[in-house]
Amino acid sequence: MTRTALKRKRLNMPAVNAGIGAAVVMFYLTGIVHAQEAPAGSVSSPATAPVNDAAPAANPVPPPDPAAELAKKRDETRAELDTLSKTITVSSTKMAELQKSISDLDKSTASIRQALIESAARRKELEKQINDSEKKLAELGVKEDAIRRSLHERRGLLAEVLAGLERMGRNPPPALLVTPDDALASVRSAILLGAVVPGMRKATEKLADDLASLSALKTASNDEKTKLTATVTNSLEEERRMDLLLSENQKLGDTNTAELEAERQHSEELAAKASSLQELVGSMETQIASVRQAAAAARQEEESRRFLTQEQRDKARELAESGVPDKNRIAPAYPFGQLKAKLELPVAGDILRQFGDADGTGHEAMGMTIGTNAETVVTAPADGLVVYAGAFRSYGQMVILDAGDGYHVVMSGMESITARQGKFVFAGEPIATMGAKRVASATALALETDRPTLYIEFRKDGKPVDSRPWWTLKDIGRARNDS
Q: Three-state SS for 121?
């Protein structure tokens, strides 16, 4: 071999080596291009032929339903919340503080009932916060699942990107200034990399963004769980405070235990005979002594209001709107018909069904149904006389309030009731507690949920009416957005 031929051979070897190295990079990056063009979920290999984009997928996977995913994640979150609630206990130190705070109260009916109203308001606010955290955790969980699913579907592409980056790290393109013999190889490599590196960079940046988003979601989820734990603890403490207050309130009752038991049994007998809510209300107001007497006194009080001066009417209105109840009154502060857009929902939760909606049995709903969490406190939505408190047919535990002005408020689906028949209750006063699961009643059978549900029905002169005009815009708007 001549000296000139040998020299040419030496000059061409780096170019050949560089070409081989570049070809290897192209081998991996070709797979990236094919994977980017392939349908989601497919895995292409750089050693196989490109996927025919025109060919339909053998078994296309339908996209997930966002609503169904969110509902499923909320159920999972709610189950975790139930487990969390069972693990949290009130410390002995905190219980001692609660007992001291109750013992320091003025042991009068007025002060105890005011403390109960304030405690119920705090519990409802904490329950709203728990509900909000539950929804936020569910939404974060759905987003996490979407990113994980995307990463899983692109696992072939991501493996090829990482392989290409690793290959380039081990065999970097030849540097132009190392030796003049590498000039041609450098130019060729630069041209090749200039064509394929943008695709690799895009795939790498997408991977980095997804991983950063996943990390941020995990952090937000952990922060929300920490916040939720603190809220659940506060809610549990407030529940214990209310239990102590209810115990004190019961001690202040002036009704004989034997009389209460006799009245309860009579009420159950009347409820068993009643065929409708209207018949039940009528029998309670005529045959139960405590209810009959309280109803007569309330009607007399309403009648006397007709003779009040305008100044006295305005003062009564201010008291009712300020939320400071007049502890001596035995009838609502002013007509129920004038309370529109002023009433607070009796529980924290989501409105699942409204008046007039299909009830799942071929009829229209005569009231509204609210989905709540376990052991949620139920408060009186307005001032009223407790006409009935007990079980009625398949409705579960039921409370019926005579709100005056010809209106009755019916609430059912609770597990335990603290209100007593014949007693006047103030707006915001705790009257019952929800159970752990939904009561299988005629008003809730068609609902696809196991959550505790509270049924609320407003009746005017014995006929159901739409309650929506009475609730505050805050409550109705919030529930509609979340349902």
A: helix
Q: What token pair was written down for 364?
A: 């229209």
Separation between Cα atoms, residue 40 and residue 57, nearest integer Å: 10
Question: Are the beta carbons of 423 and 250 closer than 8 angstroms?
Answer: no
- Within 13 Å, how many C-alpha atoms sit on residue 475's CB side? 21
Residue 168 clears pLDDT 80, i.e. is over it: no
Backbone angles phi, psi at 233, to 5 degrees: -60, -45
Indicate whether 288 pLDDT > 60: yes
The pTM of this model reads 0.69
Run of H or E residues at 82: helix 66-87
* 331 vs 350: CA distance, rounded Å: 30
What are the Cα distances from residue 398, in Å, to 387, 390, 401? Answer: 10, 5, 10
Instruction: Give the number of C-alpha atoms closer than 13 A to the C-alpha of residue 177, restricted to the C-beta side.
Output: 0
Element (H or E) spanning 399, and its range?
A: strand 397-404
Q: Among residues 380, 378, 379, 352, which one has the least CA distance to residue 367?
A: 352
- Token pair of 388 as six digits: 């009935």
Strands of 377-379's sheet in order across = 377-379, 430-433, 416-417
CB 476 within 8 A of CB 428: no
Q: What is the pLDDT at residue 44?
A: 40
In this structure, are residues 315 and 333 in contact, taking their beta carbons and an 8 Å threshold?
Answer: no
Identify whether the C-beta of residue 155 lies closer than 8 Å to the C-beta of residue 166.
no
**Tokens 């019952």 appear where?**
432
Helices (H), 154-251: 155-170, 183-251
* For the chain, percent of residues with pLDDT exceeding 90: 16
Cβ neighbours of residue 174 closer than 8 Å, sequence gap 6 or more: 14, 18, 182, 185, 186, 189
pLDDT digit string, tens, across residues 179-217: 555 655 655 655 655 655 676 677 777 878 888 888 898
